[in-house]
Amino acid sequence: MSALMEAVRAGRTAEVVGLLDELTDAERRAAFPELKALRKELRAAPWDAASRRAYPALYAAGVACQTGAAAVASWIAAADMRWSGTSAALLLRLLGDRSPEWLADLTHRLAQRPAASGVPYELMSGLVRLSGCPVPTTDAYVRGWMGHVGWAWQRGGTLLDRMRQDPHLKELVAALFETNDIGGLLEWPRGDGPDSWAGALSGLAAERLVEREVMVDACVARLLRGGTTTEQRFFLRLLKGLDLTGDEERQRRADWLALACDAVSPVAAHAQAVLSALALDGELSSRRLAEMSSAVLFRTEKKLVRAQLVLLGKVLARNAGAAEELLPVVARAFGHEDSDVQERALKLVERHLKKADGTEVRGEIAAEAENLIPGLRVRAVHLLGTAAVSAVPAPYEEVLPPVPLPTRLEPAPASAAEVAEEVGAAMETEPGVAGFERPLDGLVRHAYHDREALVEALGPVLARRWWHDAESGLRYQSRFGRSDFAVSDAEDGLDLLLAALLGKVELGTLHAVVQHGSTPRECGHSALSRAFAARLWEVAYRLRTDPLPFLLSTPTWSTGLLEPDELVDRLAEYRRLGARVSAADFAQALLRVRRADRPAAGRAAERAAALGTREGARLADWLVAPDDAQPATRRRISGSRILLECDELPQLQRDFPEQYRHLGRPVGVFTDRWYCHHWNDDARQHWLAVLPERRELVAVRLLRDLSALAVDDDRGAAVLPQLAESGGEAGEAVHLGLAYGLGARHAEDRLASVDALLTLAARGQLDPARLGADLGQLVRRGAVKPLRLAESARTAAATGADATVWETLRHTLPLLLADFATGGAGASARGLGELLAVAAESAERCGARGEIPHLAQTADRRGSSRIVAQARRLRSALTWEIAA
């Protein structure tokens, strides 16, 4: 056996095969354990030279030295053997002396493997030939066959030529229609000639090499199974290429009906076209047409709906007797979301109602007419009578979500084990403000009371950290030296405290950061990032030098707000313990303390002043100080963006540590570097918790990021609902950021923006005029696309907030209609019709009245474009009482 193993290690495959030929079955089985051991050895370094040299010979020897079909199949399909490069011909030679039954078993075991296993088709087909077994029709085998005949250009001829020569053609072609997720592969190569799959399969059917009727049935069955548009496109193209006769189409009426109702749009359109031809030829009964129409008229594709109404109109014009059966179906389109569809349906009813004399039919139509928009409902009243249709819509009531309430933080964990559990959870997920502040306070408390017990409890958490076994631990990059660590988010902050607790951060590094700050390079977010990090670096420093008994700045509420009485109680406990207050911790507490409730703040100020400490006096002055005025802002243009600059806020410049004074400094658009490492969305909610009653100061620094949602197709609107739930004035920055979010590229971001819109409205903090004007300006500049805005507005209106949506859009539309009326709309005209449609829907539902500048000029224009049609609809809605 030593000669065999030596040849395998040396990669001499030909010699290995010769040695195997000389061995008996028993000797081969005896050699396998050594081969298995070698395989395990090679796995440790699969890509070094020795492994690459040995693998081909090991692969061949392992196939020959095993007797069980299951074991051989596992060896052949193993991931570590996949790149051995051993030819299928060599494996077939090694397996050629096995019995046909054994080879058939191996064939089907290999074919049952996933296609990703990479079992060569040439090996499986060779085993079929040797064993004489039925050809497998599994996913792996069919895909392998496709690759073999589809891309074997070196064998010459077309795809059709190569398929003709296959002895198992019928079985494999039938399997194509049963294999999942294969439609996209069949699209290649493109075209309809004999070198494409569609052309080749059509050619086989034409030559009767495959029964044409079977292929048609398989095509239709595959379409009935459903799937994505990409998956179904090939089978639809093949079905069209088979050119069904009239008899074949008539035999499949039920199939066409099912496809028209439920299939993806291209397939449904084809089925609709077939049924339309049958209906116009009198081959489709009125009952079947009514069944089809009931489903198609409620599809979302307007093209299909309009085509169905056209078909119904043609049938009604030809067959007056079908009116009683078809007109109630037409009337069901009165509830369609598109007013154009409603109007088309009403016109059909108006034109053909006299053909239906039954009162039951008129009653059904009248019941559906209640769903018409107000302007069309007036026409229905004239048609059916006021007794049948109410001309007055039901009273409108705005529906807004309940105002989200913050949650109160639970006390810090009572035991070190609980602290460790919560710290571990916070470092594995995005913990939110509460999920970060509570374990943070727990770390500080337990480090003060029993440091050793805390470190022991944290053992499993520490073992998972990347820095735990590093000799140098965490390092920090500052103007005094280079390193690889900075505090950007909650996970970074907890990492810093844990590393400081274990002595993995040099004391000199901690002291330098506390003295000189933690953000050496300026960007638009630096002020927020500095303030968030400053407290954590100072707490880490105190863990090594003078541990704090607890944090003063732990918030009371999940938004970051701190109740003033709680802060007074904490300062009193510090005085009792004789503990030294951390400057950064106290500064953060001041920024978090709730001052909006002036009576409560005044009472707490009296208690704070009575403490007789410097911090108590500072808190008392802070609580009774006048409300901060918002800094003056200026709009600046940057490309298609509208951004804001703001002046300094003096209240945050005085008596605060240096790292917090940046929060009150001016914000510029062109002076700051905006492209930075603050990419983590999780950090933003903690920035809001730094200033829980001053969200405008956060929003103005996030505005460029929020503009990228619409302008650069970036992600990251999750901060908008958090901004809406935060405290302080919702001013220019909040509304402008929301405007960008409503025009975001990604649907998830638009949905988050709608949540923010509804939250502000529910809290009474939304200024629709300001938001609407911002949206109009952004659409005009090309920063926000009207179609995206229309989708956001429709989503908000669907929740029941039609009045909110209308009040916003009524300030957006005049800017866009002015451009359209003067012929200078440009890009803003694309999608304007859809925006007008949403505005009209909301105005109709909430009963809005009044005038919109430039709306009349737009509605009076000639033509029936969507913009003009929806402008007329909106004008009708706003003047509906007069028209009625």
From TrEMBL:
User: Cross-referenced InterPro entries, in alphabetical order?
Assistant: DUF7824
Give residue ranges for domain DUF7824: 521-629
Superkingdom field? Bacteria
What is the official name of this protein in its record? DUF6493 family protein
Q: Which organism is it from?
A: Streptomyces gilvifuscus
Which taxonomic lineage is given here?
Answer: Bacteria, Bacillati, Actinomycetota, Actinomycetes, Kitasatosporales
